[in-house]
Amino acid sequence: xxxxxxxxxxxxxxxxxxxxxxxxxxxxxxxxxxxxxxxxxxxxxxxxxxxxxxxxxxxxxxxxxxxxxxxxxxxxxxxxxxxxxxxxxxxxxxxxxxxxxxxxxxxxxxxxxxxxxxxxxxxxxxxxxxxxxxxxxxxxxxxxxxxxxxxxxxxxxxxxxxxxxxxxxxxxxxxxxxxxxxxxxxxxxxxxxxxxxxxxxxxxxxxxx
Length: 209
Description:
The chain contains 10 helices and 2 strands, in the order ααββαααααααα. It has 209 residues and is mainly α. A two-stranded antiparallel sheet has the order 1-2.
C-alpha cells in the first residue's frame, strides 16, 4: 500500500534538481557574492556573474553540443576570483604568472568540490577541474574550446576597457598572444564581434604586424 509519505518521497525525487542544475546554481550563487558591479540593462549585476553568463553564451556559439563537464568548467572559470586580487602578488611579470597559476589551481579545487557536493562522480568532478586549469591545451579539444571562449569574452567584454589603460605596443602584443591561443573557429567568431573602429584597427595591426 502506498502511503502519503511514499507519495511525498516520489514527488520530492521527481522535483529534485539534476546534478548539473545543482552545480550551476552553486556556482552562480558564489559569483553573486562578487562585490564588483556592472550595469546590465539598467540594473546592477555582480561582475563575475555577468562574466560567467558571457562565457556560457559564447560556449553555445563555439560548441552548442558541449557536455556537462565543459559547461560547468566554462561557468566556473573565474570562481571567487575577486577574493585574490592582483595586487596580492608582486606587480611585475613574475608576480602576474604566480597569481594566475594560483588562481587556476584554486578555482579548479573550488569547482571540483561543488561538483562532488552536487552528486557528480570523482572522475567527472576532476575533469571539470582539469579543464579550468587548461591542462593539455592544444591537445585536448575541450580545453581548446574553453580557451577560445575565454579569449572571445575578453575581446567582446573587456578589450575596450583594457585598451584605455595601455599603450598601443602593449595592446598589439596582447592581441597577438590572444589570437595565437585561439582555434580557427575562435578566429571566425572573433571577427563577428561588434567593436569600435579603433579597437578593430588595433586588431588589424596585430594580425598584419
